[in-house]
Amino acid sequence: MPYKKLSKTLQLLKTVYSYDNTDYSKKYFGEIGYKTDCLSPDDADLLRQHNLQPNNFQTLSHDELLGAFLKLRESTSLTWQSCSRFFIKGLSGDLPRYRQTLMSFHFMSGLEAHAFAPSQRHLNCDVCGLPKQSVFDRTHALYTYYLGHSWNETPTNFLPELEEASTFEPPEVTKEQIARLSALLRAINDASEDETPGQLEKRIASLKLLPKADKYKRYGMLQTLAVTGVLPSDPETDGQPARSDIVHPLAGWRGRMGVDYEVASKVFPNLAD
Ligand SMILES: [Zn+2]
């Protein structure tokens, strides 16, 4: 989508999905919708054109979701290489929407056909982490990615994310954008022995390496590096109880682990350019 239209689209979604714009009359299996009377017919049309109409609720069982992922994996034009470029571009602040795709693609790549295996503690599957049943507003899920967030906690949302990203032109990355990723990895690798992920986030913030990012968006980008193994993680290392906003695998990183440059060169072949 051309950048100008994208920023208009984001502006409209911000208006609809503001916290005080909920609409309890638009409930869908317990999920609450949002008022849309702030949209002019032209606005609504623009969102429809981009398949971003608000309150686009869907219900999918574990098997339906898994089936949809496996089917998409066969048909998508996304590759490891294009997803790594999406990430580099998103990191640079040029297109924050692109930050999520690498993590979603990593998840999809690891899936295999299986039956739902209920875990002891959660209603999620022990094999893949997908819930038994998901109810979600597709557009709201995408909206958080347009804001520049990336998360690993809700893999259900990776499906609309990857479906949409499959329609994007594979991006070219510039030398400056690659240099920004290199600088970030260098800074991470410079960590002191016992640096925690929370301290790392603060240090990265003070270095001003990541434009268009707040604390949670920085966690998202660092989490993608952890999920892909660029930041090593010890599953035994406890998350920081007082900082429950950091989850594994990022929670299992400590400064002494630095950056795994061997993995980094595989995930980001552009780094060698
Ligand atoms: Zn499963």
Account of the 3D structure:
The protein starts with a helix and ends in a 6-residue tail after the last helix. The relative contact order is 0.12. It folds into 2 domains: 3-165, no CATH class; 175-272. α4 (80-91) packs antiparallel against α5 (101-109) and α9 packs across α10. A two-stranded antiparallel sheet has the order 1-2. It has 273 residues and is mostly helical. It has 11 helices and 4 strands; from the N terminus they run αββαβαααβαααααα. It has helices at 3-16, 41-49, 62-75, 80-91, 101-109, 138-146, 158-165, 175-189, 197-207, 215-227, 261-267, and strands spanning 22-28, 31-34, 57-61, 133-137. The mean pLDDT is 93. The chain binds zinc ion (ZN). The site of zinc ion (ZN) has 8 residues, from α3.
Strand tally: 4
Which sheet architecture does the biggest sheet show?
2 strands, antiparallel
* Mean pLDDT metric: 93
Q: What strand line-up does the widest sheet have?
A: 1-2
What is the chains' assembly state? single chain
Approximate strand percentage: 5-15%
> How many distinct domains?
2
First-last Cα distance: 28 Å
Shape: globular
